[in-house]
């Protein structure tokens, strides 16, 4: 058995900055409140049943709404949606949730989570598992609905900046 080795967190973040990630906004709604967060930690879990995984920062108390709501949408951004990515990233803490959501066109599919109408792809999910793992909350959702926007270049995040693919 290997002994646990603690890796320096700044070294880890530097290494992960070289890892290209697709940029998404994970959203939810609960009791009249909406929440959206820009993330790059998301992936497919299964295609039968269709399931996705998304990670959000556990240190932000506002993210507790993801567990409370029991639903979320994973909205994949295109390269021309950098303003939305920045708005939901928290880079401007003065923006209210209402102001962030007013920057895009949103709809509801099945669960009631906000779905970006022009996302490259959006996955409307029922939360089936929730775990806190170290610094993050891991959301696993069964996909209940899917929508597609126009096919165009995807927005990626790598080397601490946005890129297009």
The N- and C-terminal alpha carbons lie at a distance of 41 Å
Q: Uncertain runs with pLDDT below 50, 5 residues or more?
A: none
Mean pLDDT, all residues: 95
- Inertia-based shape: globular
Strand order of the largest sheet: 3-2-6-9-10-5-4
* Run of helices and strands: HEEEEEHEHHEEEEEE
Count of runs of 4 or more consecutive helical residues? 4
Structural class call reads: alpha+beta
Number of strands: 12
Kindly provide the radius of gyration, computed on alpha-carbon positions and rounded to a whole number of angstroms.
16 Å
Strand content: 35-45%
Q: Helix fraction?
A: 10-25%
Largest sheet: 7 strands, antiparallel
Helices and strands in order:
Blueprint (H helix, E strand, L loop, with lengths): L8 H8 L4 E2 L1 E7 L2 E7 L2 E6 L2 E8 L7 H5 L1 E6 L5 H8 L7 H6 L3 E2 L7 E2 L4 E13 L2 E13 L6 E4 L2 E4 L1
Antiparallel strand pairs: 1-11, 2-3, 2-6, 4-5, 5-10, 6-9, 7-8, 9-10, 11-12
């Amino acid at each position: 058995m290997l002994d646990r080795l603690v890796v320096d967190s700044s070294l880890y973040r530097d290494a992960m900055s070289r890892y290209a990630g697709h940029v998404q906004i994970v959203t939810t709604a609960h009791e009249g409140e909406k929440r959206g967060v820009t993330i790059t930690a998301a992936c497919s879990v299964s295609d039968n049943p269709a399931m996705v995984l998304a990670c959000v920062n556990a240190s932000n108390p506002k993210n507790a709404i993801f567990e409370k709501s029991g639903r979320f949408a994973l909205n994949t951004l295109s390269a021309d949606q950098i303003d939305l990515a920045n708005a939901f990233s928290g880079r401007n803490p003065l923006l209210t949730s209402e102001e962030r959501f007013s920057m895009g066109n949103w709809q509801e599919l099945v669960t009631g989570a906000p779905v970006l109408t022009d996302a490259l792809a959006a996955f409307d999910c029922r939360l089936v598992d929730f775990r806190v793992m170290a610094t993050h909350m891991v959301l696993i959702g069964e996909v209940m609905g899917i929508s597609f926007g126009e096919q165009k270049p995807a927005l990626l995040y790598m080397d601490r900046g946005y890129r297009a693919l």
